[in-house]
Amino acid sequence: MAVDLLGKDEILFIHDGTAYLPIGCLTTNSVSLSRELTEGTKTKCNLNPAGVPQAPTYEVSFEAVANDDAITKMTYEKLKAEMSKDTPTFWQIKRNGVGFEFGKAYLTSLERSAPVDNVVTFSGTLQGVEAISDTDLHPNV
Question: The domain containing residue 82 runs over which residues?
Answer without folding.
Answer: 10-34+55-133
